[in-house]
Amino acid sequence: MNSIITLLTSIFIFFTNPADIPYLTIEKAMIANDSKAIIHFGKETILLNILGKEGAYNNSQAEIILGVFFTKKPKGSFIFIYKGKETNDGTFGIGMYTYNKEKFRVTFHFRDVYNSPKLESLKIEKL
């Protein structure tokens, strides 16, 4: 009987624990200016706010818009400065993108969709 309870508890925990946010993959994609790899983690519609230009975009459009930012500010450095804790509103991650002497705060907001974190919004603002 204890074995059955343990098995059922294990199955419940396995299916209710959301997947981890792919911080390392996103960090590498930011450094490589790989907008496709970043947007790959997005929901069907992603809210973007890049240097004050904001809107809701499908993945293809979001990839192009983020790619334009990388074209204008290529090969910068990136590091996460805050990796958020999961809440009912989702999970936030904040990073710093540096291009030459310019610094940009990059905020990622993930929402759990069927136990998988999906990028809901991305904001890039100049500091």
Number of helices: 4
Q: Would you tell me the structural class of the helices and strands? A: alpha+beta
* Count of folded domains: 1
Compute the average pLDDT. Answer: 87
Describe this structure in words.
With 127 residues, this protein is an alpha+beta fold. It has a single domain, classed as Nuclear Transport Factor 2, Chain: A (Roll). The chain is 34% helix and 43% strand. It has a 6-stranded mixed β-sheet with strand order 2-1-6-5-4-3, covered by helices on one side. Mean pLDDT is 87; it is low at 4-19.
Summarize the structure.
This protein is of the alpha+beta class and 127 residues long.
Blueprint of the fold:
Blueprint: H1 2-16, H2 23-31, H3 35-39, E1 42-50, E2 53-58, H4 59-72, E3 77-83, E4 91-99, E5 102-113, E6 116-126
Parallel strand pairs: 1-6
Antiparallel strand pairs: 1-2, 3-4, 4-5, 5-6
Keywords summarizing the entry:
Nuclear Transport Factor 2, Chain: A, alpha+beta, 127 residues, 6 strands, globular, 4 helices
